[in-house]
Amino acid sequence: MTAQTEIKTGLAKLREPFPANQISKLPKESGKQRDERQADRNKAINCQLCGGWHHKNAVHLDYVGHAALTDRLLDVDPLWNWEPVAFGPDGSPAMDRNGGMWIKLTVCGHTRFGYGSADGKQGGDAVKEVIGDALRNAAMRFGAALDLWHKGDLHADEEPAPKQEPRAEPRQEQGPTPAQIKGAMQRLDEAENPDDLKAAWSELAKTPGLQTVPAVIQTKDKRKAEFDRPAPPPGDDLTDDANFLAGAA
After folding, report:
1. Which of 3, 12, 61, 134 is the most buried (most CB within 10 A)?
2. What pTM did the predictor assign?
3. pLDDT in 10s for each residue of the chain, 249 residues
4. For the chain, which residues make up each domain, given as ranges?
5. CA separation (Å) from 54 to 44, 77, 123, 133, 195?
């Protein structure tokens, strides 16, 4: 087995779902619930589900704890490592102005960044919580426990997918209306000469489908035939006949 195959297999294993016994419950309070709990202790409970003290109506999110994640990382790559992105003047990992810390997590030779915070907590336990939170955040970039993050983001730092509007159906082209057909036939009938008839026919092209209506075509052809009909010879018109009859009288 090549080194490249081993790396690919290791990272794929990191994405395997965690068993139920390694999934913990994290209480999540809203800002209003947190204020109510701090103002009135009767609003809070000692939760039997997660073992924490929080508002009685807080929701719980599934998450993988520090120990379970470390166990998975060791199974995937015994030489995995993490390090802070920056160090303070005393050589300790540097915290940002929000009390959080950026880290680099390296697994199977690949590195991803992660961020952890303790939400304003202080002391040694807060530092350990920052590290554990940063490891979970960075491991999620590799796909670890991604299904749990998808169900409920621990930090809500992902924007919801934009709602897609239903695609409009293609507009069906409609044929000319009866009024348009009647107007076209009248315009053709009123043509005074072949050029006028030709111009009238060209105008009909502005209305899609109008030149394909049988009644319109028949009107055009009839009018064209009238213009093409040869003029009667002299003496055949009614005026000459009337003059002849008048002279005979």
Report:
1. 134
2. 0.49
3. 455 544 446 788 887 888 877 777 778 888 888 888 889 888 888 888 777 888 888 887 777 778 888 888 898 899 999 999 999 999 999 999 888 999 999 999 999 999 999 877 888 888 998 999 899 888 888 878 767 765 545 444 444 556 666 666 555 556 788 888 888 888 888 888 888 888 888 888 888 888 888 888 888 888 888 877 766 565 555 444 444 444 444
4. 3-151, 178-231
5. 5, 37, 20, 20, 91
